[in-house]
Amino acid sequence: MALGDWESCSGSGLVFSWLGMNAAVRAVVRMGIYVGAKVYFIREGYQGMVDGGEENIKEASWESVSSMLQMGGTVIGSARCKEFRSHEGRLKAAHNLVQRGITNLCVIGGDGSLTGANLFREEWSGLLEELVQQGLIDEDAVQKYSALHIVGMVGSIDNDFCGTDMTIGTDSALHRIIEVVDAIMTTAQSHQRTFVLEVMGRHCGYLALVSALACGADWVLIPEMPPEDGWEEKINPLTSLLTVIINALSLSSSLCFLVVRCLGFDTRVTILGHVQRGGTPSAFDRILASRMGVEAVIALLETTANTPACVVSLCGNQAVRLPLMECVQMVGRQEYCSQDKATSFPFLSNCRSFENNLKTYKLLAHRKLESELPHSNFNIAVLNVGAPAAGMNAAVRSAVRVGISEGHKMFAVNDGFEGFYKGQIKEIKWADVGGWTGQGGSLLGTKRTLPAKHVEKIAEQMRAHNINALLVIGGFEAYLGLMELLEARSSYEEFCIPMCMLPATISNNVPGTDLSIGADTALNSIVETCDRIKQSASGTKRRVFIIETMGGYCGYLASVGGLAAGADAAYIYEEPFDIRDLQSNVEHLTEKMKGAIQRGLVLRNENSNENYTTDFIYQLYSEEGRGVFDCRKNVLGHMQQGGAPSPFDRNFGTKISAKAMLWLTKKMNETFRQGRVFANTEDTCCLLGMRRRALVFQPVVQLKDETDFVHRIPKEQWWLKLRPLMKILAKYKTSYDVSDSGQLEHVVRNIRPKESDASGAM
């Protein structure tokens, strides 16, 4: 059923409480108004609900949430409220809500705020009875407002709430940390210094762990894995200079003293503090918060008197709903059992993804001694193919170090398949990839050359270096190249080896995966530029900006970037448009500009239409908007490919590369016969991609039917379902398909894998 068809929700109230990301505030307000509900702000969290009054509980309008996507913090304020913890305080809050006919709460906060909201819901009928006894409301009000419905969204930079892969605000905090770490790395290397960096998360090590994974920190200390007795002595054997130690245990001074005393290294301490809570939200957080905000409204509309309070969350790339109290009860009640000790301690971090990150960090941070490495005679080659994408270097580093940890000999191929047939192949060691995670582009070099015309020479090189497996990192050219190597198996036995591809392209146009390495960095570049462009118009007359993005025929960057930047329209190839659509968009913007809206933003994918070019759209908007608004245009170009990789791309590239290497190891062992690897089945030539909730290995030959080879895009693309969301938030009258919205599920407890089961942890 389309959301636009629902008419039964008029008069409902939606309320915010506690910490709220502004993108979530904007999404709930506009989606609520879209479905015909009255939407209220409650300022300063539960304090505003208890105090009441026009200033604290105020009806929101469409315009009241304009120009807030790029703002950090929460524009409606948040505050801790002791009074709400008392029965009397909750009684006051109930009275204030009933006075305004509010029976639906959307609460954005942590486990404390959400637990308080659930208690409020459970007491609701009793509170109404008390209000009747005190003569503050009548029996009709009790009948009319008999049930209180609650939906929660988790806002926490610590990512410490069980049931969701990522909480609102975490990715932005990681951006702040990585910005600092990248800056510190340069001075640490220049001055031969060690830096101890303290991040937030005294009860949860997610920020510290993922930051360490994303920047290649030499050491990380987290509460889930506190230092063992005598851990200080383990630093002594390290002969190389420690660059960065990330600490979430408030031990910075002790660590600094230890490094100086034991190793004699010049050491400095940097404590980030509340820097991690501020700044502009990342593209990921804006998209996550917008999706969760809309999902929260849909969940409220679908609630009944028997529906438990729920939390909308993220699992993989899928929105889900989980019972609120099941999630709260899991936080802090899991146990992380040490393999070395018979003791256990609280495992406070995210149930779904923390263990994966921890295992991956252990694989990559410290090289095992030669005596500890498994014995292997396998050689694996890794190469980048196609256009460069931020995060490629992190993937290569991960592949090299996991491969060496598995006992393999790793070979790097420069300049893709072109370098392969020219013999630009050399062994690459553990130390060779140090410091690669934070560097953009492709340090191995990359070309768009396909292998079909050079298979004989490539086969010669593989024979000369005895290559037993191949890891290809790249975009659509890598996908085509892998299929060509698969076809060459019938003529050259050298290609009868396990082969795996990791999708890495800013266009996100590879079939078989929802996300590609590099796309998040490109989105952040687009969103940051759009923020600056819109800010340039502040204080001027009404203005509309026409922005052209990259992506070939794939409209991912334009559509998802438009959602994150608050665009009014995004023109893409996948959704054909004509002059009537353009005229309708101009009229829509003209109408908005006559009101309180001062700026408009329109994105266009570079190949969206060969006739309706960026220049044409700019001229059309300029002419038709004459007297109401003026126009400016900007072609973003290759700036979308550059820059340091985002924390998401570093982490994503690192984890899927590690998983791919473990898969290649498994396949080589399975296909080793008579002194050689021989793999000629479809399932030994795969693409590793994110599909909704899971990372999946898919034979490339099975992806042919899913591919539009002419336009180099998948035939079906998940993000197209986000386009109606962008239109709704831009005040267009359109329908919204709720068939893909989250359904109420239950929290499944994670079973900790054994220490040796690295593949299971990935």
From TrEMBL:
Sorted UniProt keywords: Allosteric enzyme, ATP-binding, Cytoplasm, Glycolysis, Kinase, Magnesium, Metal-binding, Nucleotide-binding, Transferase
Annotated SUPFAM superfamilies: Phosphofructokinase (SSF53784)
Q: What Enzyme Commission number(s) apply to this enzyme?
A: 2.7.1.11
The residue ranges crossing the membrane are none
Biological processes per GO annotation: canonical glycolysis; fructose 1,6-bisphosphate metabolic process; fructose 6-phosphate metabolic process
Q: Please write the reaction equations for the catalytic activity of this protein.
A: beta-D-fructose 6-phosphate + ATP = beta-D-fructose 1,6-bisphosphate + ADP + H(+)
Phosphofructokinase domain location, by residue?
Answer: 20-299, 379-663
Per the entry, which co-factors are needed? Answer: Mg(2+)
Q: In which pathway does it act?
A: Carbohydrate degradation; glycolysis; D-glyceraldehyde 3-phosphate and glycerone phosphate from D-glucose: step 3/4
Gene Ontology CC: one annotated term:
membrane
Q: Which InterPro entries match?
A: 6-Pfructokinase_euk, ATP_PFK, Phosphofructokinase_CS, Phosphofructokinase_dom, PKF_sf
Q: Which one Pfam family would you cite for this protein?
A: PFK
Q: Name one GO molecular function term.
A: 6-phosphofructokinase activity
What family, per the record?
A: Belongs to the phosphofructokinase type A (PFKA) family. ATP-dependent PFK group I subfamily. Eukaryotic two domain clade "E" sub-subfamily.
Under which name does UniProt file this protein? 6-phosphofructokinase
Q: Which organism is it from?
A: Hucho hucho (huchen)
What does UniProt list as this organism's lineage?
Answer: Eukaryota, Metazoa, Chordata, Craniata, Vertebrata
